[in-house]
Structures are given as structure tokens and as C-alpha cells.
Amino acid sequence: MCSNSVQAMDYGKYGITVNAYAPGAVETSLLAGVDAWQSQKMGQPPGTWAKSLNDANVLGRNGQPNDVVGVVSFLVSKDASFITGQTITVDGGSVYD
Asked: Which family is this sequence assigned to (predicted)?
């Protein structure tokens, strides 16, 4: 059982929902830093490693911060008040469940 499922069971009686989001490759300063390290390690130009991640999902692009913002906004809204113990993957179709 996932940690957020256990917490959802513990906190549900108080009306508290517990959910998570799992982003894939999102173009942020963190991804840029990992890209710089990976590209240097492989002896390739900067941006090479991050660009290779585009092929890792069915949409063919890395995510943008706004791709994740919508999911987070939904999870904290009243519209998601009956959702708890779930993890929503935001990765452009890299992983399926």
C-alpha cells in the first residue's frame, strides 16, 4: 500500500484528502542542471540529454511547469473533494497504470 493511501485512511475521518502528483521530465532549472551534468558526462553538447527525454513519452516533448500546475490546482480544489489516496502521473504518457 502506498504511503498516501495509508495517510488518506488516517486523515479521511477528519475530512482531509491526501493525494500526490508525479511529474515526468519538466523543463525547470532542476532539469537543466541534470541535463548539464548528463550531457557533460556523455561528452555531448548541453541540451542533448534533456532533448532525448522527448522520445520517452507519447507526446514527444518535455513538460512545462504549467502542465503540472493544472493538476495541482485541481487536487486542491473543491472539485477534487471526493478524491483521496491517489497519485496522478503528469508525464506526457511515459508511464501507464
From this structure: Belongs to the short-chain dehydrogenases/reductases (SDR) family.
